[in-house]
């Protein structure tokens, strides 16, 4: 198996640059162009699977970085001092502006996501059918339908959560709860002294069961009830209970 | 759990359930109560809603299911509401029903109700009367339920040449992403099988 | 009409309207109240529902419409009994695109792409299909590019009363100011040095 960095991890060249700037703890207003273009090039080389429609955008940015870098290497010309152009333009200025503008909306997207998930905690109900109250209208008028209204109504409907059908009609489907899988997994792990392998936690090769098991593992990690280790890339992932284990670096 | 919290939960659940209602079993399950405890709780609540003059809804029991309904003496006001949208535009219920028929046709009334989660006789009737939908056949099998589809007039109103011009549903757009995650599980499964 | 009766009517009407919601005008009309009277009545009710621990529903205002919704802290109980057929939450690309449209509207696709630095056909398509954005006109001048804006469904989707309730667009305030002045002196210094 070949190791590939998924390009999907970034929303585009600006996102990748922001990631690098943050990772390298660089001042966004004073970007060391040589470092950043080297890092950037390394990254897009590692992304060996370049998707055709986004690859070009990453490559254009690579070229832009090179060009800024070389402009900064040019010896400064003695320029005519003009009233309305008092300072020499920094060749990075345009890029910095773009990065800052993009960062603003990236943050705004996070805010919207918060609103989205908050709103999803409120449940609603469908409107009652009022047609029994009103007389069928026999107007010659055309019914007005707007495509946006139609789509809006449909999406509202899809968003609405429904109470499950009573149990009696659900006999064929076996529900596995994450909570239950979490307990089972914890029991499995705690019943052994040595760490268990990750694949042991997926005993039933059925999609719903595997999904629930996977989510249960994630939740257990989040609650710090289990500890996941891997010696090196592609080696077996091992899982152990955090109970009675003092984490390294902690007093 | 204190009784305030219990009452709040019941109201929230009944509200979400709409006219599908909730059985006593479902209420017991949600609140972790015994059958007799939830029966008691529900009669207390029924009485409370009924006797509170500032409340417009009450708890009714239909076919062994609790559901919220508006109080009878409000029907005049609700009738006003029914008449208030201009006669030439569709209600939210009408739009939803039309959207389901447009995207899922041919479709039976029961199938529409499954998607909407509420009775849909009224809206189907209105849409038929306005010539936006029509019967397009009968379902195979027991019952031979009527199948509905949209009319040419529907396309006309929306200014569409044919149904393929309807904007795609988000589900269709997101299918690609779903396939990706399927692939993920596929390879996870394969990986595990190889290990075993 | 006494205030109890008014409250009962409002509850009944809101219940009937479901997630289609009711505008203030509809409430004023049904109760025969002035706009300010119904605004007052509604804020009193909002507070009452909110503060009553034995109530599981509250009155929200989404897209300028009052609607009943279950209280947030009950979601765990309702989840137990509810299916969630709702479409998945938006992807990062979708959210970024939506944010740009929400704050800069009306805006063309090219303008969105300038901010994001990547092609944005896919996310725009998805947002249209989910009814969160719509075409609001055409740009003047060559090309007459389509302008996009947000919909009422967008407000409802995020639980906002109107666009003014959008969280303020983040500015890198502290950093900005500090760095700006640094830059200013830096370049001033450079400028002076060059001059000499």
UniProtKB/TrEMBL annotation, chains B, C:
Q: What InterPro entries does the record point to?
A: ScpB_csome_segregation, WH-like_DNA-bd_sf, WH_DNA-bd_sf
Record field: transmembrane: none
Which keywords does UniProt give here?
Answer: Cell cycle, Cell division, Chromosome partition, Cytoplasm
What would be one Gene Ontology cellular-component term for the protein? cytoplasm
Please indicate if the UniProt record lists Glycosyltransferase as a keyword.
no
Its assembly, as annotated, is: Homodimer. Homodimerization may be required to stabilize the binding of ScpA to the Smc head domains. Component of a cohesin-like complex composed of ScpA, ScpB and the Smc homodimer, in which ScpA and ScpB bind to the head domain of Smc. The presence of the three proteins is required for the association of the complex with DNA.
Q: What does this protein do?
A: Participates in chromosomal partition during cell division. May act via the formation of a condensin-like complex containing Smc and ScpA that pull DNA away from mid-cell into both cell halves.
Q: What is this protein called?
A: Segregation and condensation protein B
Which source organism does the UniProt entry give?
Answer: Jeotgalibacillus salarius
């Amino acid at each position: 198996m070949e190791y590939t960095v998924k390009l999907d991890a970034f929303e585009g060249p600006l996102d990748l640059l922001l990631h690098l700037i943050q990772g390298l703890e660089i001042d966004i207003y004073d970007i060391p162009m040589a470092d950043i273009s080297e890092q950037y090039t390394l990254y897009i080389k590692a992304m060996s699977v370049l998707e055709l429609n986004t690859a070009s955008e990453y490559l254009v940015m690579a070229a832009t970085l090179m060009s800024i870098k070389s402009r900064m290497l040019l010896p400064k010309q003695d320029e005519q001092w003009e009233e309305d152009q008092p300072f020499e333009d920094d060749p990075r200025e345009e890029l910095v502006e773009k990065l800052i503008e993009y960062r603003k909306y990236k943050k705004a997207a996070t805010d919207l996501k918060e609103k989205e998930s908050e709103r999803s905690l409120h449940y609603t109900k469908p409107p009652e059918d009022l047609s029994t109250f009103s007389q069928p209208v026999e107007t010659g008028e055309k019914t007005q339908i707007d495509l946006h209204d139609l789509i809006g109504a449909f999406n509202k409907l899809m968003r609405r959560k429904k109470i499950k059908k009573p149990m009696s009609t659900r006999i064929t489907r076996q529900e596995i709860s994450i909570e239950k899988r979490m307990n089972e997994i914890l029991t499995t792990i705690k019943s052994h002294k040595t760490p268990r392998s990750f694949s042991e936690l997926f005993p039933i090769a059925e999609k719903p069961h595997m999904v629930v098991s996977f989510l249960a593992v994630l939740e257990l990690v989040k609650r710090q009830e289990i500890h996941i280790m891997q010696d090196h890339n592609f080696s077996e992932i091992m899982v152990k209970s955090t109970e009675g284990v003092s984490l390294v670096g902690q007093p | 759990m204190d009784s305030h919290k219990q009452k709040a939960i019941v109201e929230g659940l009944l509200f979400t359930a709409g006219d599908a209602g909730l059985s006593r079993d479902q209420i017991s399950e949600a609140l972790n109560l015994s059958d007799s405890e939830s029966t008691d709780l529900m009669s207390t609540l029924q009485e409370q809603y009924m006797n509170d003059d500032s409340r417009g809804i009450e708890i009714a029991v239909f076919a062994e299911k609790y559901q919220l309904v508006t109080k009878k003496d409000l029907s005049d006001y609700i009738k006003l509401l029914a008449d208030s949208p201009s006669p030439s535009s569709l209600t939210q219920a009408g739009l939803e029903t039309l959207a389901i028929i447009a995207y899922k046709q041919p479709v039976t009334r029961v199938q529409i109700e499954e998607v909407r989660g509420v009775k849909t006789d009224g809206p189907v009737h209105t849409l038929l009367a306005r010539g936006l939908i029509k019967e397009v056949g009968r379902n195979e099998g027991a019952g031979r339920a009527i199948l509905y589809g949209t009319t040419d007039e529907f396309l006309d109103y929306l200014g569409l040449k044919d149904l393929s011009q309807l904007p795609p549903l988000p589900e269709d757009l997101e299918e690609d992403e779903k396939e990706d995650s399927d692939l993920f599980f596929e390879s996870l499964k394969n990986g595990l099988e190889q290990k075993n």
